[in-house]
Amino acid sequence: MTKYNKHYTSSMDVKDKNGDLLGAVCVTPSKEIGKRDIMLMAENSGTQSVRSTTELINVLSKKNVSFDDRKMVLDFLAERLGSLEQELAVNTLRSLDNKEKQSKK
After folding, report:
1. Is 36 within 8 Å of 84 (Cβ atoms)?
2. Cα 86 from Cα 59, distance rounded (Å)
3. CA distance readout (Å), 11 to 3, 39, 86
4. CB distance 25 to 81 below 8 Å
5. CA distance 63 to 17
6. Most buried residue among 33, 45, 56, 64 by CB atoms closer than 10 A?
7. Which parts of the chain have pLDDT scores under 70?
8. Distance CA 38, CA 73 (A)
9. Per-residue pLDDT tens for 23-51?
10. CA distance 78 to 72
């Protein structure tokens, strides 16, 4: 559960220093197992994928997002990436457990 929207979510809204909606930051599992996609979906233009949290913060800085809002984005990313890592670990353990049970049959 994220503290931003009161329910589990993979995105959060981002506003510029004027309070205008810039777009949303989204974190989702990638097609490759164990990898994550971080995207900035702009309100008035296309979506761009970023390679790292550092790149995203630099993009947000260039788009006039306040320091406090960039810190909130970092907190959101840390929380979301942690949740995704936990999901991956749980699913891996379940898969290993199922394989072990099947091999004993």
Report:
1. yes
2. 28
3. 12, 9, 18
4. no
5. 9
6. 56
7. 1-9, 105
8. 11
9. 999 988 878 877 888 999 987 888 888 98
10. 10
Residue 20, both tokens: 């205008």
Phi-psi region of 88 (alpha: psi -120 to 50; beta: other; left: phi over 0): alpha
Strands 21-29 and 11-15: antiparallel
For residue 10, give both structure tokens.
């993979």
12 is written with which tokens?
């959060």
**Termini Cα distance of the chain:** 38
Distance between CA 8 and CA 10 in Å, rounded? 7
Map tokens 């994550």 to a residue.
36
**Residue where the block lists tokens 């329910």:** 7
Tell me the two tokens of residue 15.
Answer: 């506003």
Q: What is the pLDDT of residue 74?
A: 93
In the structure encoding, which two tokens stand for residue 79, read together? Answer: 């929380």
